[in-house]
Specification:
The structure holds two protein chains of two kinds. By secondary structure, chain A is mainly alpha-helical. Chain A has two domains: 12-75, no CATH class; 92-314, MetI-like fold, CATH 1.10.3720.10. Chain A is built from 14 helices and no strands. In chain A, helix 1 (2-29) packs antiparallel against helix 14, helix 5 packs across helix 8 and helix 11 (244-257) runs antiparallel to helix 14 (286-314).
Chain lengths: 321, 338
């Protein structure tokens, strides 16, 4: 177990270096001149020269990347925004809780929908519930989150006036008078639903398929032959096996979504990572973009590691050595 | 009273193509402590017969009729709750493929303990002790330690031993073994069959053993039921059947046995394919493949009737007894001579 962890950590480091290198190359070298950008619109020759010096752009590429890594690893510093001169750490630090609220809340919501619907429709195939669930899956997968978000905002938020349409309220230590758990959740209702629909649909389909497959396994027949009542068969034998892959999917999806749920955040003006990334790309604020990529990479690596470790606990066939 | 008496059992499955008559009027009985062998090729309804007795067919598209009297009570008409109390306690079952019949994410101990605690009001500790006892009885070495292992840590033969331990753990009166050796290699097959014979003596359970291996039948069974196309074609005590088989299909089965002491180029085989159970042939179901076919076979189905010399020996064939005696003698002589 310990050796496995060490090995995994080393792999994670390598992965991290590769991904940052690629983004570094893409964002710092190919598209634009960061020095010019950092000087603003009325860039003078002098300003650009000095900016190049401070940003280290006069050095060869590998030295620049080395410096970037050094700054990141030793000082845990992502640099400063080119446009606002704010610390990128702070920008990511402010945006991450918003995205995390959206993603974790959304994940809870989609699992609350997908688990019962997926399981029940698998246990009663071709029933009314099963058919309705399949229609929902079709709609959920086909309908774009932007469309769903706009429709929800228009009907529930604007016409009915039940929920706010935009904005975010902090859960802890609100900066404005809008804050606290209740306001936080109230403002996130529509974003959660919008974000969860696609995943709920995908998960209903996956859980249904897994449960149906597991129901036909020989060991389920063995359990029935032992005289186990139906609920024991379902809980102890079918679900225990059918939900294993769901753990993998959930970990990977949450990890990936933490990089920014761009559509949902944009529609509901949530100042999360997705929207920050979008803004930074539009304003060529490359160090911010890079900072978010670093954060997203880390969250994917961390969640994959969590999935692997969880598997060692829940699936005896996986041995971590 | 017989322990289990099956009368005119029918199991039909509704499918998209129509009704599949997987079991069509099967009757037999099992006495206490006896072994009944059911033989027949794949798809002849052997397994479905037993799954029907156990109530393990998928409910949604299965129609069952007839009766399966367990100590006088009909299993087919029992509520699922009553049936559950019998399953795993009075009647236990082991399956063909030990590789997939155990839950991969639970230790074998947990699965054995579950089997005990479903039917006995005992503590987990007692159930565990019973599980260890049974694992020892089926010959799992270091049972106290191996009980916490998972199925993937056992070989196929060992897993089948675990399945047998699980089936016998509540001391059932009847053990149904659905091709228990088919998925195992030959040396392991013999071990498992010998183990079952030994355990039957120790536990005193009756056994229904489903197989397509006549060798297994000869070794283990007291009575034999030969099934073809969802019906019983011959039923007899094992010595009577092997001494004087009375159905051309049984002859085919016997003739296709490979022999170590015979030097034959090819084994004889039964011509043709087993019929579709969606639309079985009219008359005798074996007639399209029967080398002795007569006109009457094509239109009239023979009844399952005893032969004149032996009321325990039932067979379903129009052929006159004289011819059958002659042909059977010829076949057996051939086998002995070879």
């Amino acid at each position: 177990m310990f050796r496995y962890l060490i090995r995994r950590m080393l792999w994670a480091c390598l992965l991290f270096v590769v991904i940052t290198l690629v983004t570094y190359v893409i964002f710092f070298i190919i598209p634009a001149n960061p020095a010019k950008l950092s000087c603003g619109q009325r860039a003078t020759e002098l300003c650009i020269k000095s900016a190049e010096k401070t940003l280290g752009l006069d050095k060869p590429v590998y030295v620049q990347y080395g410096k970037f890594l050094e700054r990141l690893v030793i000082h845990q510093n992502l640099g400063k925004s080119f446009t606002t001169r704010q610390s990128v750490n702070k920008i990511v630090g402010n945006a991450a809780p918003v995205t995390a609220s959206l993603v974790f809340g959304g994940a809870i919501l989609w699992m609350l929908i997908a688990l019962p619907v997926g399981i029940l429709s698998a246990l009663r195939p071709r029933s009314l519930l099963d058919r309705s669930a399949m229609v929902f899956v079709l709609i959920g997968i086909s309908a774009h989150p932007v469309w769903i978000g706009l429709i929800l905002a228009y009907t529930v938020g604007f016409k009915l006036g039940w929920t706010p349409i935009t904005g975010y309220c902090d859960f802890f230590n609100p900066a404005t008078d809008c804050g606290g758990p209740v306001q936080w959740a109230y403002h996130l209702i529509l974003p959660w639903i919008t974000f969860a629909v696609l995943f709920a649909a995908l998960y209903v389909r996956m859980i249904r398929a897994n449960v149906m497959e597991a129901s036909n396994e020989d060991y389920v027949r063995t359990a029935r032959a032992k005289g186990a009542p139906e609920h024991t068969v379902i809980r102890g034998h079918i679900l225990r096996n059918a939900l294993l892959p769901v753990v993998t999917m959930l970990g990977m999806d949450i990890g990936a979504a933490l990089g920014g749920a761009i559509f949902t955040e944009t529609i509901f003006s949530l100042p999360g990572l997705g929207q920050t990334a979008l803004n930074s790309i539009q304003t060529f604020d490359l160090s911010v973009t890079q900072g978010i990529v670093v954060f997203a990479t880390l969250s994917i690596i961390v969640f994959n590691l969590i999935v692997d470790l969880t598997y060692a606990v829940i699936d005896p066939r996986i041995r971590l050595n | 009273m017989a322990l289990l008496e099956v009368n005119d059992l029918k199991t039909h499955f509704r499918t998209d193509d129509g009704i599949v008559k997987a079991v069509d009027g099967v009757s037999f009985s099992v006495e206490k402590g006896q072994t009944l062998g059911i033989v027949g090729e794949s798809g002849s309804g052997k397994s479905v017969t037993c799954l029907t007795i156990m109530g393990l067919n998928p409910k949604a598209n299965t129609i069952s009729s007839g009766e399966a009297l367990w100590k006088g009570k009909d299993l087919i008409r029992m509520s699922s709750r009553q049936l559950r109390n019998i399953r795993g306690d009075d009647i236990a079952m082991i399956f063909q493929d030990p590789m997939t019949s155990l839950n991969p994410v639970k230790s074998i101990g947990a699965q054995l303990i579950e089997a005990v605690m479903l039917h006995r009001d005992v503590s987990k500790k007692q159930a565990r002790a019973r599980a260890v006892e049974l694992l020892k009885a089926v010959g799992i070495p270091r049972a106290e330690r191996r009980i916490d292992d998972y199925p993937h840590q056992f070989s196929g033969g060992m897993r089948q031993r675990v399945m047998i331990a699980m089936a016998l753990i509540n001391d059932p009166d009847l053990l149904i073994a659905d091709e228990p050796t088919t998925a195992l290699d030959v040396t392991t097959q013999a071990q498992i069959i010998n183990l079952m014979i030994k355990l039957q003596q120790d536990f005193g359970s009756a056994i229904i053993i489903i197989t397509h291996d006549l060798g297994v039948i000869a070794e283990a069974a007291d009575d034999v039921v030969v099934m073809y196309a969802a019906q019983v074609v011959e039923r007899a005590p094992v010595t009577n059947l092997f001494n004087r088989p009375h159905h051309p299909y049984t002859w085919g089965l016997l003739g296709s046995l490979p022999r170590l002491d015979a030097d034959v180029e090819r084994l004889t085989q039964i011509q043709g394919q087993p019929p579709s159970l969606l639309n079985p042939p009219r008359g005798c179901r074996f007639h399209p493949r029967c080398p002795y076919v007569m006109e009457i076979c094509k239109t009239e189905q023979p009844a399952l009737a005893p032969i004149s010399t032996d009321p325990d020996h039932l067979q379903r064939c129009h052929l006159d007894e004289e011819t059958k005696d002659r042909e059977a003698a010829k076949l057996l002589q051939g086998m002995v001579a070879a």
